[in-house]
Amino acid sequence: MSTQNIPALLHNNSNAVTEIEISIDAFIAKLKRKQISGSYVIALETLQLLKRFLSAARWNHVNELIAQIRELGNRLEKANPTAFSCGNVIRRILAVLRDEIEEDMRESSAAQGSSAGVGGSTVANTAAEPLISSMFNLLQMPGQSTQEFYEPKAKTKTDFRQVVIQGIKDLIDEIKNIDDGIQQIAIDLIHDHEILLTPTPESKTVLKFLIRARERANRTFTVLVTEGFPNNTENAHEFAKKLAEHDIETIIIPDSAVFALMSRVGKVIIGTKTVFINGGSIVSSAGVSSVCECAREFKTPVFAVAGLYKLSPLYPFNVDKFVEFGGSQHILPRMDPRNRLDTINKITDYVPPENIDIYITNIGGFAPSFIYRIAWDNYKQTDVHLDEKKM
Amino acid sequence: MAPKKGPSNDRDVDVEDRFQAVVLTDSFETRFMPLTADKPRCLLPLANTPLIEYTLEFLANAGVNEVYLTCSSHASQIDEYIENSKWNLPWSPFKVTTILSPEARSVGDVMRDLDNRGIITGDFIMVSGDVVTNIDISKMIEFHRKMHAQDKDHIATMCLSEATEYYKTRTFEPAAFILDKNTNRCIYYQDLPLISSQEKGAVQIDPELLDSVDEFSIRNDLIDCRIDICTPHVPPIFQDNFDYQSLRTDFVRGVISSDILGKNIYAYITNDYATRVESWQSYDTISKDFIGRWCYPLVLENNMQYDQTYSYESRHIYKENNVVLAQSCKIGKCTAIGSGTRIGEGTKIENSIIGRNCRISEGITIKDSFIWDNSVIGDNSTIDHSIVATGAKLGSNVTLRDGCIIGFDVVIDNGMDIPIGSKISSKPVKSLGSSTFDLEEEDEDEEVNTLSTELVGQNGVGYLYDSDASDDEEESYGIHTISNRLAHQLEELYMSDASISSITKRKKKKRTMSSNSMYTDREDVDSDEDDEEDFEAEGIATIERALENNHDIDTALLELNTLRMSMNVTYHEVRTVTVIALVKRVYHFISTQTLGPKDAVHKVFNQWGDLFKRQAFEPSEFVDLMNIIMDAVVDENFEKPDLILFGAFTSLYDNDILEEDVIYTWWDNVSQDPRYDGVKVLIAKWVEWLRTADEESSDEDDDSEED
């Protein structure tokens, strides 16, 4: 027990221990200790780390590069399985890389095809189609396509490092400008003299969305904010204060009053942490799930705002695994273990897709049932499970 | 780390450069025996992670750059562990150095060693190697700096965690802190007896200490988690005061009550989770707190060690990968199971922590227990509130009752029933040449060395560990047995504040100490179980003191009275102690040949006889008094007991304390026990004479009757 197995990878290149290992490890430690929180911050920090990782990485073939990035992604995901945005951005970058490789191979095979065409590479081309476009492809085994392993013989001329770093920069830009995209839609959604309810006061996107609607479109509306006891109460107060500063009528209501007030509410707006491929989402406040349930009862539309980087290609088979559980100490006073109550304090909550009417993303509004399509536009199926060992 | 604010002192440069921490891995206690005979405390697993990891994790969070582990017992094991741990990797958040000081016998020794090595350059964190906490150290550092800026004499900040009223088992070493209300400066520190010990503590404060203070608070609700931020002045203080042993009772008390040093210690009070694993109870409590997520964000599924793979399931169940559960086994709430463990059909587990690679067979019930790695448990066993250490093997149908501790590699045969609170180790626990085990050296007797076949069975391997023989704490016998068990039975033992009153009522005992009763203090420690004896010892001491220092009678009476009321005893006891003390005094005079028997009795009883006027009021009480005197005289084994008794009675009679009627009543009912015959000879004559004198109203010379 006294000896710990440190991942083999770390020891193998221990002679080449670089600063990058230190920063990766520091980042993992921070994730484990929950010193960084908020999907926005985590996504950006992951990208910065990935950028450094790439500049330090050495590889002989692009397959190795992919393997290394996957390994990194796996370690980050393991460190904190509920910090989804880590894995999301890494998968996005992998998708960018794979697209580029396919492009590259298509070109080279086109060049080679004229002289001595190799049958194998043309098969790869057909399978590289990102969307399921024909009935024939539907019957294909997903993830089994050849695209996951690229033939090492082709001598590539593209500088993949440059490509990936460019991809990272683009993604950083996208993430930073997400609110603009969402806010464009805001104006059309909020009507004058409407009553809105938001149960996720810590969401910056929701805050900006509302402020934008107020300032740009000069709408007058009322916002009800749930208190979010016990984990989110401070955030709720902060949120209400900020809205009030922008001359929006804001009322904080106790969590228990949601059902009573729902009949008066025009729209429920929630911020999300992660959107799964089935259209369900993880939201960062316990009780949102019941608010959405309640909204459905009253046929009140539920709008979920989410940046594209929050889209995860995972499927929530086991919701328990994805929901984060917090500590007990702020709910009850500390008691002797012999005769105390067990507390289960969910920090995040899962909202099933049927309780959400529309997702507002930076590229437009989508029904939950359509989310899978957007996911496959941005991710590759082979990268869904980063912990799977490939050959 | 943010650069240091505050006034620029001589050592600023170093402080900005690095932040140091000293981890005291040795507690110099034996509370975890017999397990600590094989393994140091800080490597014992708590929730399947060695204790030291929690401390190091905390330091990593605190942003420390250099960590010094001071090791004395089992130093090589700690050294080896650190060498192979993640903290020794190049990207570890800090540099770990182990300092081996095997000759250290106390915290004081360790500090002196540190000072000799000259390692400390700036402010440093000092923690013990068994801390489990999630406190935000940055706030504490901020507080430390703020106080340092305000007060040049500030040398250390202690971290104290507030306990709630529902949290009974605060700490094994309760203490009262007297704090300045405005600045949290610690004015006074005093250890308190354990609540379970049925002793009442008192805090004695030198009024001078309070002179400069406007408002102060006295608190005993603080859990002392032994996290201190110290300035580099601290180790030299230990050097100067070479008698300082412990961190709190010697150092903190010494520093704050010393005029010469003129240094101050502040307390940082937090309500975050911070405790030490200092006894079996706290091991139990903290394990359960940890599993119950009370020190979030420090939770098991953070997987502090590289190879851990815990994941969380609702109702506080944590499982690693590769756990094999039979279909019909039941895993209840608050349970953690390590990888490679197999659990058989029909087994029920609740509130327990199971280590790695355990073989847990069928039909077993495990409740509130801790099974460490590689244990084997046979079919249909029952384990309740016990610890099964690494590598132990339990046969089938074994029952472990409350508070059993099964040591490393112990083998228990089929069908054994281990009684409550047994501690079994696989080899007789010997002194390992380390400070911690000094006491066994003396106490090692043959019973420890015999294989306890009646406990572990014919094919078993194990020795009963007799904890009482080895415990070095000053508590009395009764507390030992309690303290060495798990927390389970604490409720019955009045650990809570709420039940203080009930103790008092039941035991009819309470004690207040007058500020000058130093003697009394000493008596406290020795006096054990019985309250009456307590009072006796103390009452006698009080009177002896009065006799010796020639107090006036009123003072002596006042003290006795206070004592009587605080302990809630009857006048009978008061009379008894007074008589015993007086008779002892007489005996003292005679044996040292200061005075002859007659003079001695007269002197003592003439001078102090008045005490009885305020101790007896009714005739029946005086009769009682006379009986007491007679008993005392007989017990004291004088050469001429009859003379002494006669002298005492005549003195009292002459001083109008004893009335004639009383004497007659007494004489008529006096015990006919043969042991009193010797003393009654003279009395018989005296009573006779009194009666005649009474009737005839005439005087008679009594000289003839004496001698």
Automatic annotation (TrEMBL), chain A:
Leader sequence range is none
Per the annotation, which location comes first and is thus the protein's main one? cytoplasm
Q: Name one GO molecular function term.
A: translation initiation factor activity
Instruction: Give the matching InterPro entries.
Output: eIF2B_beta_subunit, IF-2B-related, IF_2B-like_C, NagB/RpiA_transferase-like
Oligomeric state and partners?
A: Component of the translation initiation factor 2B (eIF2B) complex which is a heterodecamer of two sets of five different subunits: alpha, beta, gamma, delta and epsilon. Subunits alpha, beta and delta comprise a regulatory subcomplex and subunits epsilon and gamma comprise a catalytic subcomplex. Within the complex, the hexameric regulatory complex resides at the center, with the two heterodimeric catalytic subcomplexes bound on opposite sides.
Record's subcellular location: Cytoplasm, Cytosol
Protein name, UniProt field: Translation initiation factor eIF2B subunit beta
Q: Which UniProt keywords apply?
A: Cytoplasm, Initiation factor, Protein biosynthesis
* Family statement: Belongs to the eIF-2B alpha/beta/delta subunits family.
Entry GO CC: cytosol; eukaryotic translation initiation factor 2B complex
Q: What is the lineage of its organism?
A: Eukaryota, Fungi, Dikarya, Ascomycota, Saccharomycotina
TrEMBL record, chain B:
Protein's cellular compartments: Cytoplasm, Cytosol
Where does the secretion signal sit in this chain? none
Positions with biased composition (Acidic residues): 523-533
Q: Sorted alphabetically, which Gene3D superfamilies does this protein's record hold?
A: 1.25.40.180, Hexapeptide repeat proteins, Spore Coat Polysaccharide Biosynthesis Protein SpsA, Chain A
Q: What molecular function terms (GO) are annotated for this protein? A: guanyl-nucleotide exchange factor activity; translation initiation factor activity; translation initiation factor binding
UniProt keywords (A-Z) are:
Cytoplasm, Initiation factor, Protein biosynthesis
InterPro entries recorded: ARM-type_fold, eIF-2B_epsilon_N, eIF2B_epsilon, LbH_EIF2B3/5, NTP_transferase_dom, Nucleotide-diphossugar_trans, W2_domain, W2_eIF2B_epsilon
GO cellular component, alphabetical, reads:
cytosol; eukaryotic translation initiation factor 2B complex
Q: Which domain of life is it from?
A: Eukaryota
Stretches the record annotates as Disordered: 505-533
User: Which residues does the UniProt record annotate as the domain W2?
Assistant: 529-700
Please give the family membership noted in the entry.
Belongs to the eIF-2B gamma/epsilon subunits family.
Listed under subunit, the entry gives: Component of the translation initiation factor 2B (eIF2B) complex which is a heterodecamer of two sets of five different subunits: alpha, beta, gamma, delta and epsilon. Subunits alpha, beta and delta comprise a regulatory subcomplex and subunits epsilon and gamma comprise a catalytic subcomplex. Within the complex, the hexameric regulatory complex resides at the center, with the two heterodimeric catalytic subcomplexes bound on opposite sides.
Q: What is this protein called?
A: Translation initiation factor eIF2B subunit epsilon
